Amino acid sequence: MDRLQSMRVFQQVVDEGGFAAAARKLDLTPAAVTRLIGDLENHLGVRLLQRTTRRLALTPAGDAYLARLRHILVDIDEADALAQAQSREMTGTVRVLSQPALSVHVLAPAIASFQRLHPEVRLDLHVQELVDPNVEDYDLTFVTGSVSLGSTAIVRTIAESHAVLCASPDYLRRHGVPQTPQDLLPHRFVRLRATGARLRPLTLIDPTDGDRTVDIEAPPVLTANHLDSLLRATIAGAGIGVQATELVAPILKAGVLQRVLAPWITGRLQLTVAMPSRKYMPTRTRAFLEHVVEHTRRTVADLGAAAEEGMA
Q1: Predicted TM-score (pTM) above 0.85
Q2: Does one domain contain both 181 and 75?
Q3: I want to staple 312 with a disulfide (CB 3.0 to 4.6 A). Which of 75, 128, 196, 262 is the partner?
Q4: Is 261 exposed, middle or buried (0-12, 13-18, 19+ CB in 10 A)?
Q5: Same domain flag for 79 and 115
Q6: Structural domain range at position 111
Q7: Which residues does the UniProt record annotate as the domain HTH lysR-type (predicted)?
């Protein structure tokens, strides 16, 4: 028995003054209304309504039950409305998990512009290096394509870009500007060190020549497992670094760094977002996700094009 439906039907029968009228109001058959009232009386073990051919009347038990029932149904309706409002209204909190570099260079600028549009939405941002993130604990989890996600997570690609070589103008004045992959051999490199992985030769890819590849031995003068530390060292002139387009393009556009050896790249990257479920996603969460997607793709397209054309 659907007890809640039976309770609503009982209230409607009393309010409408009969089974047929209640059936029309609820878009049910009179037989269904009769069955639901009978199920409720059987469950309670008392008669709630006195039925005659001329009129319908509440029994004393039915009158007492209805008095309490009205308050219960009002509370349920208010609870439903409150929960639905959380899904419809642009208020409340969005819990976000992100890798550090994505948080600094992708999410932070998007958050600023999103909150100008929706000032009542709060962002609870958790930043950490991720190996096996617990997607279920957050509304949205932003990672690069190299992070392993659980098989139950819903994953969406936000942007695809590539990694490029870059260096500070000061470094290039002191050490020269490489013109060919072989020109990189005497240069100083700062490189990302993945935990537990051995540094391999630097693979260069030429996307204008059928993805032709060249491997370069690039012993680094600095290794780190923190991308932003490498970026700051590259800006300070420590050497040639590898950075993702969407992270470094604004810095290239500002002239703080210069692209090295265009059009060669060192790899292709994906920025993805993981969600516990698409079902019942609150409006605030969906709005923030779509804002990040649009902001990131626009940044990659606009600033990436500027980096390709003006900073090569």
Answers
A1: no
A2: no
A3: 262
A4: buried
A5: no
A6: 92-310
A7: 1-59
The domain total for the chain is: 2
Residue/partner pairs of 246-249 with CB below 8 Å, 24 or more apart:
246/105, 246/106, 246/159, 246/161, 246/271, 246/296, 246/299, 246/300, 246/303, 246/304, 247/101, 247/105, 247/106, 248/164, 248/166, 248/307, 249/299, 249/300, 249/303, 249/304, 249/306, 249/307
Same domain, residue pair 231 and 298: yes
CB 142 within 8 A of CB 100: no
Q: Strands (DSSP E) along the chain, which ranges?
A: 49-51, 56-58, 92-98, 121-127, 140-144, 154-167, 189-192, 202-206, 212-216, 220-224, 240-244, 258-260, 267-275
CATH of the domain at 98: 3.40.190.290
Looking at residue 73, its pLDDT comes to 84
Q: Does 262 lie in the same domain as 207?
A: yes
Of the candidates 92, 99, 252, the one whose C-alpha atom is nearest the C-alpha of residue 167 is 252
pLDDT tens-digit readout, 251-285: 888 899 999 999 999 988 888 888 886 666 888 89
Same domain, 281 and 142: yes
Exposed/middle/buried for residue 54 (C-beta within 10 Å: 0-12, 13-18, 19+)? exposed
